[in-house]
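Schema walk-through. Below, the input block comes first and the output block second. Nothing else is stored per chain. Lengths vary across the set, and this one has 141 residues.
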Amino acid sequence: MSKVENGKSVTVHYTGKFENGTVFDTSLTEGREPLRTVLGQGSLIKGFESGLLDMVEGEKKTIEILPEDAYGEYLDGLVTVVKKEQVPEGVNVGDVLQSQSERGTINVMVKEITEEGVKLDANHPMAGKKLIFDLEVVSVG
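--- output ---
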């Protein structure tokens, strides 16, 4: 049986959960296909790829991915407060806006709106979170 290695195509069903059991994504929803990718190209988070290594077709397992192998630690330095005039009229908490940085366009989430201004967070929404994935390798090619 072929095992999952870097450079090989792999098809996998997955369910991603937070530590509290809340599912944030799954390929098992009706109408969804399993994830197909070539391992080692960096298209998946590091912990997901390393969790798949050496699995074989039909194998199932659960992996835990620490923040540093997922979307990174939550960084307070990526939270800023801007004047209300600097954001579009009618924004609400939870809205995602695009902003320009030295590295190009980034997404920022509106975290709070006060009289003083608008708090924007450029952290990935899953930064600082441990992720748990149930994996099932469908095929390796």
